[in-house]
Structure formats: structure tokens, C-alpha cells
PA domain-containing protein (Subsaximicrobium wynnwilliamsii), 607 residues
Amino acid sequence: MLSSEGNSYVFSNGNVSKIDIPVTLNLTPLEDGNIRLTWDLSIQKLDNLHWWSVRVDAVSGEIINVADWIRTCDFGELDMKAANNHNNKTQEGFSMFKPSATFMDGSQYSVFALPIQSPNHGDRSLLVEPANATASPFGWHDTNALPGAEHTITRGNNVFASENRDITTATGHSPDGGANLNFNFELDLDEAPAVYEDASLTNLFYMNNAMHDIWYQYGFDEASGNFQQNNYGKGGSGNDPVFASGQDGQGLNNASFGTPPDGNVPGMTMYLWGESRFKELVTVNNGPLAGQYISLNPSTAIGNNITGAFLLPVTGDLIVVDDGTAAPTEGCNALVNAASVAGKIALIKRGSCSFVAKIQQAQNAGAIGVIVMNHNNPDNDPNYAPYVTMGGASTPAFTIPSVFVNYQDGLAMATALNNGQTVNVTLKDYNVYQLDGSLDNSIVAHEYGHGISNRLAGGRFSANCLTNPEQMGEGWSDWFALMITMNAGDTPENPRGIATYSSGQTNDGVGIREAHYSTDFNINNFTYAATNDDTVLGTNSQGQTVSWNEIPHNIGAVWATMLWDLNWAYIEKYGFDADLYNGTSGNNKVMQLVIEVLNFKPVTLDL
């Protein structure tokens, strides 16, 4: 035992917990209406995947209740059939922050500023001194309420953001903004996430602070158990800023948030997400077809393809091959237009001979690259399943790159050439990188939302309140994300997805839920009756059958749908205000209402 005070004790971590183990004597209500004297203790596992809260009978030693404070948002299998679209949309007029804060620290952050949901939804912008005067009166890097930042890295009163790719218990790298707190880092989404970790962690730091500051306005403050190192004498228990781990190597396609009682440090874990097989390898540089096109790289057996063995990018005019046969554009034989192909990128139609044979004929003719277009069968186009990979082995390996495009895109290029147009094309490097969840504001907001609902429901010391099968935490978290990413031009029927960027979908994708969020019943027909849907989805690890209504995320999706409908009913009556801090319109009223109701929610233990 390390220390004791009254009926509370602190034991050493025993090399089984990341932190020393608090133990408190208390009373626990049972399902039969009786009450038992119990010891309450919590163990944060060294791998940070579970944070167990255990209640043990003080007399018999029987375990009465076990709960996990970490909410792991199992997003399931990814549908990567839609390519990531990095074409940014313009941001509508939106005033997120107060004109000035009470404390000027000169800080600036290059981030996907709200209401932008992800890199697919808009560009980054440079925010200068964005800390809210009420919620973070001394800036985001202060911890002692005195002039001057205590930290120049992504650490402050509300959050400490660092990376954990190597899965260590030690604190990983955090971006350093220097004495001027300048967090304006380069971001190239065509690079591996590790290359842009500073930009990613800056966005993670920003989003945690933004969630802190926004929801502070509606009641998630110190007295209610929010996450702060220093509570500045405003009540509640301090010493609990969020510890946010970015690019964490312990998982994939997921995220989690662990919420202990007030005064204990919560943890947010953000993972990388599975890469899309669809990459825009082909760029048309001129004319009406200008733009990027989805394509697939061949198998490596065909000759290292479009990777580092070649000096890429390769740029040249496109030309349709002609081998002088009845199917001249399939290029299965020596090309009769070899002189015209030399020094250009060959366009070849898929057909009766192998991919290797086609590419070999083009290389023999002096082509500097090859685009193979699919035949008219959309079922195996590059953007449909089953996927086509140009297989086969070339000996020796090819010295020119090659890619595969769908029939529609290839036909458009061939038609332009047949009409006498010049089509200039660039083949770029094929870098298949995972996507970074820390850049997806909807995921960060969702996870932070778990912290809000867990701290508020049942009170700031009742971290086990949302554990029963019909708890609505997933729904609140989706709703938190939806509310802070609304735009002035949105409509009630407009379909909204969660985590479309991370799941490899375009902006209009459904994301990680069974349906879009929308008031249109043809788009989302969830009603409360859906919570009684006993359709069997499969079995769990114990061999027990699991039905739709037993999945917390699906229960949550129904609840979020109800809240989303309520939001639009309020907006219809009171209007919409883009100011999330000082607004008084319908969306602001609903935000206030939900936080107040969470504050009143009683404890409902799942015993």
C-alpha cells in the first residue's frame, strides 16, 4: 500500500496497471434490491486496451461487478470500394471562435478547422489564438494560470497529444511549436502517416481542445467533471487532462476513449485505418478530361510496376496501340504503329492475350508507360468487386510502369484521341498508405463525446453509469460529431455519414453506420422499434448468438437518429447559428438541452 485516507487507499501498480491502483470502500446496489459493502478498484492494463473497474464484496471477496472504462468503437469491416477524394471543398462562412481571448499567447495551428469534417471535406486553415476566453482563459498550453506557456509541444491544460506507433508505455513524440507556439506543419496525404505526424498530432490536439471549449459553453465545465489539469478554482477535481495517443500501433480501423472518475486522467487512442486499394495513379493534364482517375497497380510479379524501380512520375502524350489484327487495340502482337508509340504512354484494351504480352509489346515499341483499359464488364472494373489485378510474371522485369483503369475512363480517353485531341497523362507513384484517424474530426469528436457522456451521466464520479445493454453512449457520440460539423447550407434531408474519410469513402458515403443520418425516412427509417430487432447477426467469442438490437453501436445509431430529428425540429423553429459558442438558435438550444439532460441522468449499473 502506498497511501491511505479514510476508507480510500492507493496500492502499487504491481506491474499489471499503468497507474497505481486506487481502492475505495463503498456501497453497491444489487439487482435484487439489496446493497452490499464492496471495495471499488480500477486497473488500467499496460497495453491500454482495457481499464477495468471492479467491485468486490468486502466480506466474501466475490466479484460483484466488472466494467470497462474504455469505450472501444469497433467499426467492423471497412468498405473500401470508394476512393478517397482529396479534392477539397470550400468552407462556407463560419465563425467558430470568439474574436479574441483574454490571454494572448501568439499560438497558431494549421488544422482542419471545424466545421470541416475531414480532409475530404475541405482544406486546412491557420487558426491564430483559437482558445476560448471562457473555457480556456489562459490559452491551450497553460497549466498554472500565469503568463507564459508551460509547454511548447502539443500539451496543455486540456490535453496532451503524442504518438505511440511503437506501442510503448513511455510518452512518444509530440510536435514542438517553439517559443512562438507555431504549429504550422506540412501535410501531404500522399505520404505515409509517419511523415506527417506533426500535422496529424496538431489536428488531434486542436480537436480535443475545441471539444473542450465548445461543450464547456453548454455545461461540461469543471464542476461537472470536465478534463483539465488545472481547474482554476472553479470546482471539480483537476489533474485529468485527456491523454491522446495518435497513430497508435496497438490496433487498426478503430478508436477508443477511457473515462475514469473525475480527477483521473482519461485516455483517447486513435489508430490508423486500412488503406484503400483504389489510388488516383492516372492524371490527365489537359483538355476536357483533365483530372485524376482511379486505377489499380499490377501485381509485383509483373515487374515492380509503378513503384520505386522507375523514375516517377512519368508524363507523356497518350496513344492507342495498333497491332494490325482484327482486334488492333488489344496490342497482343508487334505494334504496326510502333514509331508513333515510341516515347509515349500506350493505351491498350484488355482482351484475349495476357497482360504481360500487352505490356511487352508496348515496351518493345518504345512506350514510356502503359494504361490498360478494362473491357465492357463493370463487374470487374477497378472500382468494383471482384477486383482485377494485372497478374503474370515478366522475365526480365519490365522497365516501364503500367496501370489498369475502368472501361468508362479508358473509353473516354480513346474517344478523345480518335477525335484528334491530344491527351497528356502523368503516371504517379503507387503509394498505398493507411489513413490517419486523427485527421477525421468526426472520429475525434465521437471519442471525446464518450468522455462527456460518461462523466456527466450519473455524476462525475460515476464512470460506470453507461454500461447496460441499451446505453446510448454511441448515439450521443455520433450526435456530438454531427452537431459541430454542421454547415449553414445543410438541410434536414441531407445525408450525413460518420468517419467517411477514415473508412475510405467519398463524402456522400454512409460511413461506419447502417444508414446515413437524415430526417428523410427513405434514407434513414430507424424508429424506436428498431431497438427490438432480433435479427441474428452472428455469434460472439463465447459462441452466443448476437442480434441487431444487442449491438451498442446500433442502439446508439437509433438514439442519434432521434436526437438528429430533434435538432432539425429546433432549427426549423428557432433557426441555425454557426456560432457554437455564443449562438442562441435552434442548434444551440438542442446542444444545451442534451448536456443538461445528461447532467440529470441517474446511474444504471448493469449487474
Summary: The chain has three domains: 3-67, 108-275+436-600, 279-427. The chain has a mean pLDDT of 82. The radius of gyration is 28 Å. The longest helix spans residues 552-574.
